[in-house]
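Follow-up to my earlier ticket, as requested here are the two runs.
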Amino acid sequence: MRDYLPEAAAFDDTRTPPTDRLAGLLGGVREEPVQVLHDCMDGFGEGWRHLPAEGWGRKTRSPRPERPGNLQRMIDIRRATPDDAEEIVRLRRLMFAAMSGRDEPGPWEKEAVRVARRQLAQQDSPLPAFVVDGDGPGLPTHLAACAVGRIEERLPAPVSPHGLFGFIFNVCTDERYRGRGYARATTAALLEEFARRGVTRVDLHATPEAEAMYRSMGFAEHSIPLSLDASTLDAAARPPRD
């Protein structure tokens, strides 16, 4: 993953136990990470605005009053396995289509399935992911939603003694299941996993549609994100290889 941001801690995971912190993200009601409550917010996780998790572990919220027509429901969330690779890539394709307005199938899908299957099979995978299974009579096995992240190991620093940083890049809900809060719930579970494994700052790129949800979870602007496509560099400008 490209390292285009300065190293800095953005939340304090020493003040609030992880399960309490997850409850705060979901509205203040404590539940186990794999069975969480939600309110009806959804969105896509990869897009254009850079939003790190600025202080998401520092405080919890009081329970929200129940709103008419918006009853909180239980969501069964589970950790993704290698067998989910094809469905995660299917949702990834839907995410790109929603972002760009055009569907772009291609060889990248087969390669993405291969990479996802390999990395999800690793112990303490650098590709943590949480999913919600789809339902419906007569439908083949499929995923309703997913949230996928990446744990990157950099050199430790005063604000990051373990040198671990997180990135959320694949949050998507099948259109048949939108409006049920699956994006919020799976993202919250992913943040819980980051905290458990010692990650400090968590970054993401938010679409305009999902920005409000991420801000409500504690994400905010941090620094100035810059990126470069190294494949576009002129060969003469590239540093020599050893």
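Run two:
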Amino acid sequence: MTYEEFLQDTHFDNFPIAQLQGIIDFNVVSNLDVNQFNTDQKRWLSQYLIGNVSEPMNDIMKLSKAEQFNVFDTWFDLIRDEGSSKRMARHILYHLLNA
């Protein structure tokens, strides 16, 4: 997936490019295939990063356990910022424990 494809139809436009480059590892983005599942993953991640935690987590919790793992595994690969990764891990654990 290209940088432009990754940003398309997401909430990433709420971030300055410099900030986004500090959060997202765009080397990982280039390894993502363009398909519906990855499109959903990037949209959910963009929602999560702007502070809309409930909606993407609710959507992800409806997936199979294997698909949930793939989403979160991809998110952790994409997030380069340690602080963001830790906060995300806490939110994921909270939602998994309360599902």
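The only thing I checked on run two: The chain has a mean pLDDT of 93. Let me know what else you need.
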